[in-house]
Design brief:
Elements: H1 2-21, H2 26-30, H3 33-53, E1 64-67, H4 82-94, E2 97-100, H5 102-106, E3 117-124, H6 144-154, E4 163-166, H7 176-188, E5 192-195, H8 208-226, E6 232-234, E7 249-250, E8 253-254, E9 257-259, E10 282-283, H9 296-305, E11 320-322, E12 338-340
Parallel strand pairs: 1-3, 1-10, 2-3, 3-4, 4-5, 6-9, 11-12
Antiparallel strand pairs: 7-8
Helix pairs in contact: 4-6
């Protein structure tokens, strides 16, 4: 047993020396077609085994959570206190979630460690309780961003990323320079800026021109302030315009997807159930009253109890890994990336 092992090492050393010269065709002689195919098969088998080991399920569902204001004294059922928001994030850490942005979700770029579950954190209406910077450019204590960054710092691997759906309210700033500072700060710190329309009107029943004006004008403002283009839109009140496509494409905007306001986890972007015209979100709230079943605590409990329904990563963003019997649900455009076990 010793001899082949030693001679194997010798081959590697010789090959390394020769390839250092840059002219000897050693690799080509050694690496025949059959060997290359065998190597590929071995690497695929290793990937399949790794995916099976963590029970990867990249056709599973992803919670897209929705917050509005983070304030000490909630005035509406949409408000959340800083303490409750911190608890929301700590629960996600405990359950093995890693945040991704809405832009990453809708472009299918989910790059998180093996065995982890993606979650999208979204904030609507651009309120100062989400982002306010002090004179040194540091997020103010108890704003959503400050809490998120704090929880991430204490829990390595929990990415401090989120998507902010912006209206003309612009985090309470009215001066162009101040608005620009905030949007550029978000961009430079890895946050995703989405479209929430200019005036937050209900788009249902409005003309095409009105819809395009509401979405297009804020898109132009965001781009002129921060040189970024929103990748997705969150529809005010979750209401779709008369023609759903108007939310995605207009003269001044091109969105990959539109998000709604309720009431279930979202399908994986690799699944046939995925519909970019209307991606559901979940309100962040405890399991009580009208939130007994359809808000975040209830759904996170459900996803934990039903791991076969939840998205679990295999750690390789280049593949879409899942148990073989789920194959009929793979979107055809992702066939080349399929890894079944
Ligand atoms: Zn809103």
């Amino acid at each position: 047993m010793r001899l082949p092992f030693i001679s194997g090492v010798g081959v590697v050393v010789v090959a390394a020396i020769l390839s250092g010269c840059g002219s000897e065709p050693v690799a080509q002689v050694k690496d025949t077609k059959a060997e290359a195919a065998a190597k590929l098969q071995r690497s695929k088998a290793a990937k399949v085994a790794a995916a099976a080991k963590v029970k990867a399920n990249e056709l599973g569902q992803i919670p897209v959570l929705m917050w509005h204001r983070i304030v000490p004294k909630p005035a509406t059922t949409d408000d959340r206190t800083p303490a409750k928001f911190r608890e929301d994030l700590e629960r996600l850490v405990k359950d093995g979630y890693v945040p991704i942005t809405a832009a990453e979700l809708v472009t299918g770029k989910i790059d998180i460690p093996a065995g982890k579950h993606p979650v999208v954190l979204t904030f609507d209406d651009s309120s100062p309780s989400q982002l306010t910077l002090d004179a040194m450019g540091t997020p103010q204590k108890d704003t959503a961003i400050a809490i998120l960054q704090d929880v991430a710092a204490k829990n390595p691997g929990f990415r401090p990323v989120a998507t902010f759906y912006v209206t003309r309210d612009m985090f309470g700033k009215s001066k162009r320079e101040e608005q620009s500072q905030l949007l550029i700060w978000l961009r430079d710190n890895g946050f995703d800026i989405g479209n929430h329309t200019r005036d937050h009107h209900n788009l249902r029943g409005r003309t095409k021109q009105q819809v395009e004006e509401q979405i297009g004008s804020i898109a132009e403002t965001i781009t002129s302030l921060s040189q970024t283009k929103p990748v997705s839109i969150a529809l005010p009140y979750g209401n779709q315009p008369n023609k759903k496509e108007w939310a995605l494409r207009g003269p001044h905007y091109q969105h990959r997807a539109a998000f709604l306001a309720g009431y279930t986890p979202a399908p994986s972007p690799y699944s046939k159930s995925y519909d970019p015209l209307g991606i559901p979100r979940i309100r962040a709230m405890d399991k009580k009253g009208d939130c007994a079943q359809f808000c975040s605590t209830a759904w996170l409990d459900w996803l934990k109890a039903n791991p076969d329904m939840r998205y679990t990563s295999d750690g390789d963003p280049a593949t879409v890994a899942y148990p073989k019997f789920k194959n009929p649900f793979l979107r055809t455009s992702y066939k080349a990336r399929s890894l079944m076990y």
